[in-house]
Amino acid sequence: MRLLPWLLPVCAACGVTREPYEVLASANLLPGAADIHGPLELLGTGDAKPDSVSEHMFAAYHVRLPDPRPRRIRLFTAASCDAPHDTVALAWNLGQIRQVGAETHFFSTDVEIGGRVIDVDVVTRFAYIHVNPDNPAFDALGMIAVVQDLEDGDTPPGPGVGTQGAGPGAWLACGVFARPR
Amino acid sequence: MQSGSSARPAEPSRETPPRAGGARAPRRALIAVAMSLAAPRPALAGDAPARPPDPGAAAAPSGPHEPPAAEPAEPDAAGAALPRERPEVIEVTGEAPVEPSTIELDGEVARSTPGALGEQLRTLALLPGVTTGIAASGYPIIRGALPGESRFTYDGIELPMLYHFALGNQVIHPSFIGQLELRAGGAGAEQGELIGGLVTMTPARAEGTRTELRANPIEIGAFHLQPLSPATSLAVAGRVGTLALAKIYNPDYDLYYVDQQTQIVHRLGNGDQLTLTSLGAIDYFGRPDVGIKLHSDLLGFHRLDGRWTRSRDGWTVRAGVETQLDTLRATTIYEMPQAPPGVDPGPAPLTHREGGASYGARAYADGSMSPAPWLRVRGGLEARHRTLVNGKAPFKLSTSPDPYLGLARRVDAGGAWTALDLHAANLTITPGLRGDLYGAELYGATTRHLTVDPRLAVSAELPSGARAELSVGAYSAPPQVSLFRNSTVIGPLPMTDGVGSNAGMNHAFEAEVSARLPLGDGLEGSVAAYYRNTHRAVDFGVVDQTFHQAVSCRDFPAPYRDLDTRAIGAEVMVRRELARSVTGWLTYSLAKLDRDFGFVRLPGDFDQRHTLNATAQWRRGAWSFGGTAHLHTGRALRYPTSDACSSAGPFTSLDQLRRPAPTWRIDLRAERAYQLAGWRMSLTFEVQNASLTKEVSGYEVDPETTRVVEQTVFLPLAVVGLEIVL
Question: Is A110's CB within 8 Å of B413's CB?
Answer without folding.
Answer: no
